[in-house]
Structure formats: C-alpha cells, structure tokens
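Submission sheet (multi-component)
Chains listed below:
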Amino acid sequence: MMHSATNALSILGLSKNYGQFQVLKDLELTVATGAIHGLVGLNGSGKTTTLECLLGLQTFASGEIQVLGQTPDRLHSLQGKVAAIFDAPSLHPDLTVHACLQQAQWMCAGAVHSPEEVAAWLGISRYLKFKIRQLSLGNRRRAAIAHALIGGPRLIILDEPFNGLDAGGVDDVLQLIADLNRDQGISFLLSSHQLPYLEQVCTHIAVLHAGRIARSDAIETLLSSSEAQALIRTPDNRALEKVLAQDGRTEVVGSSTEGLIRVNLKELDSAELNRLLVREQIAVQELILERATLDRMFRELTREAGP
Amino acid sequence: MTGFLAALRLELHTGWHTLGSKLILFLPALLAGLQLLGNSVINAGNQARDGFLGGSFEASLSEHAYGFFVDALSTGLTFLALLLVALGAYSFSHDRDTGAVRHLVIRVSSRPAVLLAKLIYFHLLALLALILLLLVSYLISAWLWEFGPVVEDGFELIGEQEIRQEIALGLRLAIIPLPAAIAFAVLISVVASSATQAVTMAVGVTLALDLFKTVMGDYADFLYARFQPSLVDQSYLADVSRLVRGYSDVLVDERILQLNSWTPWPALLIFLTLALLIVARRKL
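Outcome: structure written.
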C-alpha cells in the first residue's frame, strides 16, 4: 500500500510499544477523502493510541503516517485543516465558550466561520458567556465540536464523540457529521464504542483488534458478509435442531437462557425458514429475525481473531 | 514564526482571562504597598513612643524613604519570583492536563514554538509586574517619607545619586536570575505528569534551594537562586537596604558581582535546552 493524494489519511506499518507491551503491530489504515470512517475495537485495543500517533501527540516506534499529505509532526503547517475532538473535551476550563472559540479562530488561517455561527450549529449560543467549567459534559462536548469546526477543516478526527451526550445530542451530532460530510466534503475518522451510532453515520468501518486492523471496508460490504440470524422458541428444541441439521441450509450457533435457539440463516430467508418449520410440523412459539448489525459483525470478528 | 506568534497571542489571551496572570501582575506590587503602609504605621508608633519618653523627634524623622523603598522592592521581588515559578510550572502541565495544548500543536504551532511562547509570555508578565512594583513602591514611599541623602550629625554619608546607583545595581542583580527561574519552572512543567505535581515540585525545590543555600558554602555562588531576593535573602538588594540607611558601607564584592551577572545564564540555557528536548518527545 502507498500513500495517495486521494486519501485523507494513510497509515503504513505503524508499530507502537508501551515498554515491553506492543500495542500497535504493523497497523495499516487508509481513510479516503470524503469518507466517514469509523474505528472500532475492544477496550485497550489501541484506538486512542492510533489517533494520538496520527495527530502527532505521541511518538511511535516505526511506520509512516500521512495526514492530508503531511507527517504528524508537521500537522500544524496545515493551519487548522485538521481538527480533533478528544474523549475529554480539551478546552481551557477557565475560559468562556466565546473566548475558546475565538482562540480556535486564531489557530486557523482564514477561519471560515465565526464563534456565533458554530455555536448556533451546536445549539450552545446561550452558553457563549459561560466558562467551560460551568457547562455540563454534553455541552462541553458540543463546545469542543464547535471549536473543531470553526476553521473549516478538511479532516476531523473524533475520539469517542458521543460520550456524555443525551439521545437528542447524539442525534444532533450524527446529523451534523452527515451534513458536513455531504455539504462540505469533510472527511471524518471516528473512534467509538457506540457501534449502533457508527452504523448510522459511517461509510466505512475499520475493526482494530490485537494491535492490527482486522478488517476495514465499506459498511455495506462488511454487513453483507455477516449473515442474518433468527431466534426461535419451540416446545421441543431438540426436534427443531434435528430438522435444521437435516435441512443443512442453516447453522445453529447457540441458545439463550430464555430457551431461544439462535440460527444463522446461511442460504435461507426468514419466509423459507418459516415454511420449513411448518412443513416439518414444528410448533413455533416465537420467531425473531435479526439482521446483520455492526455490533454482531464486530463480536464475530473479535471472537474469530482471538485475544 | 507564524506558529510562535499565534501561540504567544493565545497565551496573552488566556492570561487576560484567567486569575494566575493577574496574581503575578498585581500581587507583588500590592504586598510591597501593604508593607510600606505597615512600616509607616510602625514608624508613627515609634515616633509617638519616643515623643512620650522624651526621645529625639529629629532622629526618627531623619529616616528617609530609600530604605523602605528598597525593602518593598525586595518583598515584591521575592513574591514575584515565587509566583513566576508556581505559574510557570502550572502553565504547560495544566494545558496538557486539560488537553488544550493538543489543539495548538495540531492546528498552528510546533511543540518548541508553544514552549518558547510560554517563556516569552512569562518574561513579558515579569517585566510588567516589575514596572508596576517599582511604580507603586516609589509612589507610596514618596507619599509617606522623603527621598534624600544619608545624613549623620549634619554630615552627608551617602549622596542621593550614589544611593540611586546602588539601588539600580541591586535591582539589576536581583532581576538577572529571574529568566533562569522561569526556565526552571517551565522545565518542571514539561517533565511533571500533572499540574499539581509540577507546582509542588517547582515551589518545593525553589524553597529548598533557598533554605539550603546558606549551608552550601561557596558552591551556592554557582546557583542562580543564590542571587534572587528570597525568604533567606542573600541578594545584593538586601545589602543595599542596609547601605541606604547608613548602617553599612558594604559595597558589592567584585567576585560576587561577576558570579551574579553570569551564573544564571548557563542555568537558563541548560533548563531551556532540556525543556525543548523533552517536549519534543513527550506524549501530549
């Protein structure tokens, strides 16, 4: 893989150690210009370390990183075209929201938005005179997002952007990300544990596991590779399992504590499954269809890859 | 250069909106002013007592403003140095704790530029605080007492011009170690893992140096902190305070003058180089 001008960022062979512990092992990741790329991984898988390395906030043992054509230690020369929002809102607690946004304006050459404008987008106009320390966590996060947007960035990197936001706040942020991506062509790299939120907004997903990217692809491709599942309850689960085994077009993957059998619909759709069970005179008490989700795909992938 | 200027502008803006910088700016002058007012009250008490006991009124009245002025400067400079060390240590480490420094290095400045902007900012702050301290001390001293030569039995021991020259020398020698003190604080700020640790370490080491310099013998002469006005004051300004009262004709020893003039600069360079090296590798 090579660095390309069509990529917003690319990471080649990134390795990083904390003492003896190797947290990133030859990691490779590309975010295309205009993409909303989600980065998911278990706790301690190295998501934040990856983001910090590519933002030039910590050094790494080996590898190459290009962000909008610059190396991490030269990001400042882009003068605000890359912005980041961190897990903890990284704003000076003793400054007012307005003062923070004004500082963000000064950080970016030819800032394209005013503090009032971005505050209005995020719904924090009435808090402009409040100090950051006086805001709730959710509003601090909104202020941090406003801070990132003020310079009209080409790439925004977000680490756990939904932490501390209420349901309405999450919806606003998701909508804002989608709008900025569609209207202004801003690329995003989002690291989050909130897989359902990522599924709503991301065009691509990378799964980071055991220090490597286990899978990175367009979200449709990833979901299409994961089979739909059905949860079935019958008075006689043993008979059900026998029928399914004889048919061979499904795979029983487990059972829940509530007595539901989980079945992978490999070559069947739910209607065909239903027909099969009726034909074999299996009395079905409950049949629940579960479509492929990012959450399930992630669980399968991290289980397959091992610790 | 753009990154450095942007970082300096942000530093000034943050300073304008936060308490720490205002403390550095106003507290030394305020304490010096309060000390002068306190001295004036004590002086008035002494005069009243002497009046009752039949002592000489003239002897008390001959106390002139220079002595109090120099004492006020010493007090102000002592606090100024301590406040600069505390806030210097707090600055970078606090920005790292809050994450505010991350936006700077991602968007506008290199790490060395951020650090140098902080150093320059603290020097500007120190300069302003010093001007304010001089102004307040001089005006209050002039209001409460009269500036004049040291006279004993009608004979002029030290002329006013000589007094002013010695005060200027004492002040210059007292100010020379301040950049090294600031650089030391910024180094600690870069090294420490939190703002609390940085302030504790920087103030603790500064106070420890102050206390132990008396037992370090001649080795202390190679320590920048030896020449600062401090709680255990060995600076030339302390000698000037006695000199302008006519108690002593002590003039600065040439060897000490040279050490005072030159020792702080290598210390400044060492602290600055270390801070720049560490900040380039430090996780932010």
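Remark: Residues 2-281 of chain B form one domain.
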